[in-house]
Amino acid sequence: MSKQINLTLKVWRQNRGEEGKFETYEAKNIDTDASFLEMLDVVNDELTLKGIEPIAFEHDCREGICGCCGSTVNGKTHGSHERTTLCQLHMRHFEDGQNVVIEPFRATAFPVIKDLIVDRSGLDEIIAEGGYVSVKTGNAPEASTTPIKKEMAEAAMDAAECIGCGACVAACPNGSAMLFTSAKVSQYALLPQGHPERAQRVKNMVAKMDELGFGNCSNEYECAVSCPKGIDVKNIARLNREFIKANLGKN
Amino acid sequence: MSIKTSILSSIGQKLLLATSGLIMFLLFLIPHMGGNVLFLFGPDMFNSYAHHLHQLVPIVIGIELLMLTSISVHMIMAFRVVLANRKAADKRHTLKSSKERSLAARLMPVSGIMIFIFIVKHLLDFKFYEKAKTTLHGVETYDVYAMVLSRFQGDPVHLVFYVLFMVAVGFHLSHALQSSIQTYGIYVPREGSKIKLISAVVGWGMAATFAIIPIFAFIK
What is the CATH number of the domain that holds B65? Predict the structure, then answer.
């Protein structure tokens, strides 16, 4: 049975290039069946009626698969539920009268665009350095031409689950993009189609990651805890391996 | 990407950090611990060990130079990595750590600096300190056993200093060992990892073994 709850929100408000600060708003009569983003929609409607600029937040599919949404809620990326994006976090997990603090995903490499929206294009830049396979296009090949072991295919799919939301960067004590980059490197390193460009890919993606000011991995695994898709630090070990092999000329 | 940029990349620097640390662990900490334990077996054993070590001077100097290089590389890389990390994770107001993040991991820079202070103090205490002579099986040699005793007996402050800094060694090693393994590309799982367990046991076991020596010297 759904019910209605009231919450006190402390939300980060900021315009690009200006100093930001937390503002307090009341979220009234929120249906516990609503998602976190729907709660923000309700609050924004009220703010608009009061003549206050609505809270800017990023969203697209609201099905947990696009990677657009995400904020730090009460100190946890995407809120406190494991393997859940913010759009899939429901208000039934909150208590009536609770204080909810909402901060954008923070990292020096993620400058704030407005309020809760941050510029995560750094992740796209890392992808542009090699997160793809340059194959000849044409007719789709016969499905069984390239045999792939089931375990390899599954491990590649696990890595490919990454939606690039940036929670790992925001949760990492060092603002590192190692989990993201490792997932992208892994999904190609595990499949034969990715092998021709393997060495170049890992070197270029790591170089771009460093250039953009993401931090270093200190193996504290906060990233894996924060990941809404359950990307494992096994991928980071694989990224390190790929990097070592690439520099030893073994790929 | 040239070799230079690879070495100074985030992963390259961490590999240097891990390798210099492992060199110090394998070629210095383990033999040093083995030697120290002989203190518990009395003056003849300990002085004989020191005497034999002095016979191997060329090797000892070689190891000392290697340690000096390793500690320099280790500290330079650690400073670079930590400063870059501080810069990359700026202005967070509400982020909370999960239980995943161990105290040992969090304290790495602090325990590292403590260990450096300790090394300086330790060298002043024992290496650059005038030693009395004694005779062992008719051969004149340094009485390092008496020196260790004299440095701790009746000096609880000195004892507490040594034991406290061994706690820093325990913290540092318990994270360092498993973290370096993951950096080399060997998967260390989040939960139920044998590598994490072994790392903690070896790290704290080593720190405890080192701490026994000053405690033994103090109460003897």
Answer: 1.20.1300.10
